[in-house]
Amino acid sequence: METYNSLSELKNLEVETSDEKSCYRNHTKSIAVTIAYLLGVQENYIHTIDSDNDSCEILLDNLNSNYKAKVIRSLNNIRSNIILNFKSTSKTIRISSLEYTPIYKMDIYKDDFLVLKNYDINIVTARQDLNEYLININKEILNHIEDVRSFFPDWIEFKYIRNMFIMPNNIKAEIEKYQRNQNLYPFKRYFNWKHPQPMGNILATDSKILEIIYRDNGTYFNELNKVLDASDNVKFNINEFIKRGEKIQIHVDGENCDPYKLAAMFDSLQDFEIQKIDKVVVYFDERFSSKAWMMLKHFTFGVDVETIPVKRVIENKSLVDHKLVAGISKAVFKDGIDSIILASSDSDFWSVIEDVDAQYLVLAESDKCGFEFKDLLRNHDIFYCYIDKFKAPEKDEFFELVFKYELEKLIKESFSMANANDMLNEAVTQSRAQISVVEKEKMYHDILSNIKLTLNRDGNYSVLLP
């Protein structure tokens, strides 16, 4: 929960919110659409969730072309229709009924039964008992729900998605709960909802459905940066700034900017915007800044990245700000750069904005940029936006690259004193055995070359020899 030191800070926040519209962020909807499909929501209703019909259509085409997704959709659709129409269906499928019709031939069920038949899944029972049908459906969903894991990003706790589709053993109680609250369920499609509440369309956005699912599992959804993107207003202003500029550079304070968030901003830019950027210049403290800056060039879509490491003359004093001011001055006065995107939350750089004549756009982080600095920028008509409001990529390849690099370095350091030949010779010596060179070579290839490390739950590793 955010806290404010004074009423004036809270008032400043209200002014900022009402003035710049950046609070109206774009919500992603692909996860909500995927869940809606798997629950059995009709496709014409799914299109009302995502107004971007092109992206929605592409996602639905992918789901429709995958038999694993179709199986879960049909199973859940039959289940929802049974518990929604329990009495009328039970009466119709009763053999003694004058209107007797097998359930798999009834209009609201037959298409889904046909899908299941095509994939050799049989839920038809010997007795015309809807409870038995529900038991069979629940078993099949339990058997197949893991098959749709790949449709969800790795950062989602899939066990919570799985729990949505697993009906509790007390089927009668679940049916009664659903029938009492059927208008609260999305498009009247059943899922395992412990405490149904009136919350509008819970499939409206990814953030809404995930917050409900996580809460239903006794925890909180804390990955909003994965499902919220910068507002259209922010993207429009960046686009207009780049359009107006002739020669544009991005100058980055590596101590006051997150490399992964800057990469996420690049991910949101369009090709023609990226092409107009001359280069990115990153100034970073060699000892205290993220090493990710050295790899940023792989994620700027062809824009050159110049990294300028800055050494400390005095232990407790960084010179990054001085280098950045000098770099912007050189870019404007010597290289003819007319537009600067400054990535920093530090108000110390106001002097360069004031003294070096260029067009400026500031990328700041919302929790690091003070109200006074933002007021100053607004009062001088300099647009700023929050770099941490851009949606993180679904699979963060940038982080993965940096993480693997750092992990590999640590592993090498851990084994820096270990040489395989030395270890082999020492093991032979300690064994107090005399072996030939040929035998030693064979041991090297058969044993040392096939050593495996295994990790336990505490992170400790052990050596497995063949």
Notes on the protein architecture:
The protein has 466 residues and is an alpha/beta fold. 47% of the residues lie in helices and 10% in strands. Helix 17 links the parallel strand 7 and strand 8. Helix 5 (67-84) packs antiparallel against helix 8 (130-144).
What proportion strand? 5-15%
Question: End-to-end span in angstroms?
Answer: 53 Å
How would you sum up the major sheet? 6 strands, parallel
Helix content: 40-55%
* Rg over alpha carbons: 30 Å
Mean pLDDT: 86
Structural class assignment? alpha/beta
The SSE string, one letter per element, is HEHHHHHHHHHHEHEHHEEHEHEHEHHHEE
Strand order of the largest sheet: 5-4-3-6-7-8
**Number of DSSP E strands:** 10
Helical segment count: 20
Shape: flat
As residue ranges, the low-confidence spans are 1-23
Could you outline the blueprint of secondary structure elements for this entry?
Elements: H1 7-20, E1 26-27, H2 30-39, H3 43-49, H4 53-64, H5 67-84, H6 86-93, H7 107-118, H8 130-144, H9 158-165, H10 171-180, H11 206-216, E2 228-229, H12 232-244, E3 248-253, H13 259-268, H14 271-275, E4 277-285, E5 304-310, H15 320-333, E6 339-343, H16 350-355, E7 359-364, H17 371-379, E8 384-386, H18 397-414, H19 420-430, H20 437-446, E9 452-455, E10 461-464
Parallel strand pairs: 3-4, 3-6, 4-5, 6-7, 7-8
Antiparallel strand pairs: 1-2, 9-10
Helix pairs in contact: 2-3, 2-4, 5-7, 5-8
